[in-house]
Amino acid sequence: MKKEEILARSKKENIYGDEREKVIRTKRDAFSLWGLIVLGLIIMVIKLFRAESPADIISILFCTAGLAFTYEGLKLKKKLTAISGIVFLLLAGYYFYRFCGRLF
């Protein structure tokens, strides 16, 4: 292979950044997801203390987890992970339905 071909292949493979950038983005996503979960749990506890239904927050948390598990299960071909994600998505739909039922 010529030097130009190697450089062109490397550019194509690293179009979304080098390995360090990919690792940082992955950790960023995980860090922000944990922030969402912690904030959601805090809001849910506040709503429970005020005798309000936390169905909206629960649906958001289940949806986030469900999408993550389903994506991972499909990409890595792990049936149990994908099934877990689908269950979380169904629970998200149920709690969203409960939330909407209280609005109308």
What does this protein look like?
InterPro entries: DUF6442. The chain is an all-alpha fold and 104 residues long. The chain has one domain. It has four helices and no strands. α2 packs antiparallel against α3 and α3 runs antiparallel to α4. The chain is elongated. The relative contact order is 0.10. The model has no long low-confidence stretch (mean pLDDT 87).
How would the blueprint of this fold be written?
Blueprint: H1 3-13, H2 19-49, H3 55-76, H4 79-103
Keywords: Membrane, Transmembrane, Transmembrane helix
InterPro entries: DUF6442
Transmembrane segments: 30-49, 80-97
Which spans of ≥5 residues are poorly predicted at pLDDT below 50?
none
Shape: elongated
Number of strands: 0
CA-based gyration radius = 20 Å
Structure classification: mainly alpha
Total individual domains: 1
- Arithmetic mean pLDDT: 87
Quote the distance from N terminus to C terminus. 67 Å
Strand content: under 5%
Query: What is the N-to-C order of secondary-structure elements (H for helix, E for strand)?
Result: HHHH
- Please describe the biggest sheet, giving its number of strands, its sense, and whether it closes into a barrel: none
Approximately how much helix is present in the residues?
over 70%
Tally of separate helices: 4
